[in-house]
Specification:
The protein contains 2 helices and 9 strands, in the order αββββαβββββ. The chain is α+β, with helices and mostly antiparallel strands and 126 residues long. The strands form 3 sheets. A 5-stranded mixed β-sheet has the order 1-9-6-7-3, with no helix packed on it. The protein has a two-stranded antiparallel ribbon with strand order 2-4. The chain has a two-stranded antiparallel sheet with strand order 5-8.
Length: 126
Amino acid sequence: MKKSMLDKMFPKPGETEPEIRFEGFTDPWEQRKLGEHIQLGGSGETPSATNQNYYGGREMPFLGIVDIEGRDIAHTAKTLTEEGLRNSAAWIVLAGAVSLTMHASVGKAGIIRQDSAASQALQMRP
């Protein structure tokens, strides 16, 4: 039954509309490449925890795996300074991006609700 329903929920080859749809979905389907909608963050060196000049203050939220506990990521346990950002592989991820963990707790996901620095994750743009 599951296979039958899935077959009906996706357009057949050469078509743009499936047999059945969820309410509110009316536009034709478009085939797109995932690479057009994703920014790979990769992995890199986390700012050294032993350098006190890299953390603290209110300069930039720093996203860590511990911060991804639900759908929305509104707070981070750590903040990063401009110096910490410059001297590491961290980069800025804009609010509204989806973050998916790639290391340790693989597959934890959440929507970032504030611009944040990150060093190890995969971000998908809305």
